[in-house]
Every structure is written in C-alpha cells, then in structure tokens.
Amino acid sequence: MITTLTPRLLGFLIKKGYKYFLSQTICIDREDAYVGITLKPVKKHPLLQKLPQPFSAYYSIIQEPVQMASGIKNTAITVDLQQSDAEKFESLKTTLNYDDKKSVSAG
Length: 107
Fold this sequence. Notes:
Blueprint: E1 2-4, H1 7-15, E2 20-27, E3 35-42, E4 57-60, H2 64-69, E5 75-80, H3 83-106
Parallel strand pairs: 3-5
Antiparallel strand pairs: 1-5, 2-3, 2-4
C-alpha cells in the first residue's frame, strides 16, 4: 500500500522496529509537486551496492525522513508499506481519531 509520509506514520514505523528507508526518486508532473520520493521501510542495514531495483539510495529512519515527514516544497513523499503494516496503521489511525473525538467532546 502506498501512503503519504507523515510524522505519525514515521513514529509507527519506528515503534515497529524499522531502522532504514530504501529510496527511489523520480520526476513527476503534478500540480503540487515535480519530484516524487518513494520510501520503503526496512529493518536491516541495506548494502548500497545491493539495493533492490528500483531503489537507488537509503536513509536512516531517524534522520532525513524526519525532515521529509514535515514536508518538502514541490515534493511528494510516499511510503510503500507491507499490507500487514498498512492495516495495523489504518487501525491505529481509526482508534486515535476516535479517541481524539471523545476527548474533544468530553472537554
């Protein structure tokens, strides 16, 4: 599943034990962006010489991606999640949104 990188998603992936992102950068033609970065979370240190296609770089999850999660002008940053992680994250988002609504209505 492809989803937009957010600080909440980044925190979720760190808690799940991911330490790196494989990275693919492409040119895109969108109204809001002309650079597309797709990140794929991995738990083991990747070897630069043996990165799987189409990835050409990697980042420590706690360095560049932290800045990326806040947004980069003219750049669309997405994360390619495994289905199981995507389902857990969506479930967590739903629970958090429900809890947020409860606390607002209680306050």
